[in-house]
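Repro:
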Amino acid sequence: MDELSIESRRFSMKQARQIVGDQLHAPNPRIYWTDFLLSVLAGHLSFSAMMFAPSRFAGDSPLLWWGLKALFFTATILLFLRSVMFTHELVHLPREGWSAFRVAWNLLCGIPFMIPSFTYYPHIDHHRRKSYGTEHDGEYLSLSHQPPSAIVLYMLGVLVTPLAGVLRFGILSPICWLFPSVRKWTFTHASTMVMDVFYERPEASRRVYKIMILQEIACFVICLGLILHAPLIAKTWFDPLWIHAYCVSVGMIFMNNIRTLGAHRWTGPGSELSFEEQLLDSCDYPHRPWITELWGPTGTRYHATHHLFPSLPYHNLGIAHRRLMAELPPDSIFRETAKLSLLGEIAQLWQRSSQVASRLKVAGRIDPYSPSLHGATSGAYLSASKHSSDTFQSRPSPNSDAA
């Protein structure tokens, strides 16, 4: 980034707060409950239809069979992706008054998908100015400073991520219960949804450990149920449910990884960035909501606006973005965060990455076994198997250790 040009265009958080106002910061329980319940229940219905409807209604037509399978497969991915993304909201919601919603999300979504809420608590570090883009941010990779192979490895991680979930909760959890000495390593390296597999989760409170163990037990029961479903329910040694669940999981993670590649410009070099640099490193996609809301549900398409106001509920991010675009000065750097096309931004990321690869090739310094490249293989899941003139402070959610 051009430090001189950025420093000469400071962003005023005081002005931004005045434009957005205080009324938008109150989350609406009715919207949260309705949106989540409709999404997750429709997702489960669509998953069942994907498994059974083709055989029941397609008859002898292979074309109809595959058509129904593809239709319900796509619907299931989109509905479950929207349901899963509420884990991001859990981190930023107030601790008080949302316990029932957290329990419901874990029971209907987080635990069945083996991504219980405790795995996302460190997300708050992604919003701390001194952590963003550094080794303390497990949700960041300096992809603009790495060859394209880093992007490819990051996307290939989707193939192993579902298996990592089963390994974490079906095998590592009971090992931790039997051998407590394994707990510290597991918590540090294999208990967080991240991009960087070398991320080390910092120590947490006893409350977090208690929540983690309870959620681990529930996830272990799910793993056990998946295994026993074959002989007890499906009456077979190989359960078709496994293939369907794996394919849907891969599809969801693939969609989320594509969204993630366009959420930032990934220009941070790994050191601390100024507030303006962080803002310019983030992207909003306010156009074409009929498609952007599918791949960027629950406000995730307004990622730059979210980084400005982390505690703003997802259903008000669009309003906040429009207010800022209407009232900020014409030369405000916030306007540069609005992007037209997700694929266009990913193409630009690939171009920046390719330029790095060309320079490294000329210098003879490409190392395919570099840890910086291996850090891209996590998919978006478990690790080890990411200054303004008014003094910006991202407001950590008070519930960083809430269930």
